Amino acid sequence: MRLGLVGYPIQHSLSPWIHKRFLHQLNLEGSYQLFETEKEQFSEMINYLRKYNVNGFNVTVPYKQQIIPYLDHVDGYAEEIGAVNTVVSENGVWVGYNTDGIGYTLGLKHAYPSLFVEKKKVLIIGAGGAARGIYHALCESQFEHVDIANRTLSKANSLSQLNKSSNVQTDILTFEEAEKNIGDYQLIVQTTSVGMNEDRMVLSLDNLKRDTIVSDIVYQPLLTMFLQQAKDKGASIHQGHTMLLYQAKLAFEKWSGKEVVVQGIMKEFERFLKKE
Ligand code: ATR
Q1: Mean pLDDT throughout 126-148?
Q2: For position 142, what pLDDT does the model report?
Q3: How far apart are the CA of 128 and the centre of ligand 1, in A?
Q4: Strand partners, 121
Q5: pTM to 2 decimals?
Q6: To the nearest 10°, the Cα dihedral for 129, 130, 134, 139?
Q7: Which one in 44, 59, 166, 220 has a CA-CA gap of 20 to 30 Å to 269?
Q8: In the predicted model, what is the mean pLDDT of residues 10-39?
Q9: C-alpha span between 242 and 202 (Å, rounded)
C-alpha cells in the first residue's frame, strides 16, 4: 500500500510510527511516507500523488480545508465540519473523510464507557480547528449539554452552529464563567494548543470536582500541566495520544478495508512518547 501524510511542518509527525505498526499487524506490504509540502508547492504535490497512485493519505495543518477542491467526493460528515484529514483513493477516485472527532469519541468511549450511558454535561475549551470535529462528534453522542468556553467568544458562537441535534444544548462561556462553573461538568475537554511543550494552563481548575473526567488533546508532554492538576484534584484523566491513535485507526481501516487493534500499540506508544 502506498500511504502518507501531507502537511507542513511534519518532520516530527508520529503518524509514520503508528501506520507502520498497522501495516505490520495486518501483514500488508507498504509504506507511509511524509509528503512535507510548502504552500506554493501544494498543487504540484497533489499532481505527484495522483501520478504516484497512492492508496490514500492523511492531511494535516495547514491543508485540511485546502484539500477539498482537489477531491472527487467529500463524505457528508467531513463536509459539515469543513475539514478533511483522510483521503482514500478508490481506483483513482479520491474521497475525503474526517476521522478526528470520531477518533476522539471512540478513544474516550473505550476508556470511559459509563460516560456515554446517562445524560451528561460536557465542557469544550477552545473553538479552533481541533475543537470542530470533537464538538460535532460529542453532539452526535447525545450528551445533554456540550458547552464551549473560548477566549474569543465569536469563534465559540460560530462553532456552535455546527450543532444540528435539537436535543443537545450549547452555552457559550467566558474563561471566568468556565472556571467558576467547572464543577457542573462530568467531562472537560481541553482542545487548545496551550500546554504543548510548556508548563501553562488555559484556565484554572480550582473548582474541579473529584468525579470529573478531564481530557487534553495535547500529547507532548503526555501529562500536561492541565491533566496533572486535574489528577491532583482527584479527577480521572484522558490523555491526548489516544485521539491520535484512534483517528489513525479509523483512517487505516478506510484504506485497508480491515479492522486494526490499537490496544497493544497503545502501551508501546506511551513508552515511545515517554522516551523510555
Ligand atoms: P487548532 O487548529 O490547532 O485548533 P486554531 O484553529 O488556531 O488551532 O485554534 C486554536 C484554539 O486555541 C482557539 O480556540 C484559540 O483561542 P481563540 O479562538 O481565542 O484564538 C485557542 N488558544 C490559542 N492560544 C491560546 C491562549 N494563549 N489562551 C487561550 N486560548 C488560546
Answers
A1: 95
A2: 83
A3: 6
A4: 145
A5: 0.94
A6: -30
A7: 59
A8: 97
A9: 21
